[in-house]
Amino acid sequence: MIAVRSFMEFEPEWLHLQEEIHGKPCIPVVVEALQHERALILLTFLADQGINARLLEEKKMGYPIPRNELDGSSTRKSVAESVRLVMVEEEGKIYREKAKKMRGLFGD
After folding, report:
1. CA distances from 76 to 2, 8, 23, 61, 73 (A)
2. pTM of the entire predicted model
3. Any bridge partners for residue 2, and if so which?
4. pLDDT tens digits for 50-90?
5. Which of these CATH numbers, 3.40.50.2000, 3.40.980.10, 3.30.420.40, 3.40.140.10, describes 2-106?
């Protein structure tokens, strides 16, 4: 699965092209992910994304990928562990359940 910062309403052709190129589902993040009951795994790059990620984390709507405190980098291992936690592990169940609950709010 590939998560992108976009909207299906604005760029449907581009999103479908990404799915064809990568051979994986391409999910626009946050609103669209919650519409489809997808738990969020958060990796921020820009200023406003950090604020949004903290709010989503606080509400248990998303899990942030751990980063190095000194330089902000993340590792393949931390990404893989975060995905596994949210998608499979028992301790990530809260994120999956919260995503299902949010469908009613964002799915209309």
Report:
1. 15, 28, 21, 22, 10
2. 0.67
3. 26
4. 787 888 899 898 999 999 989 989 999 999 999 999 999 99
5. 3.40.50.2000
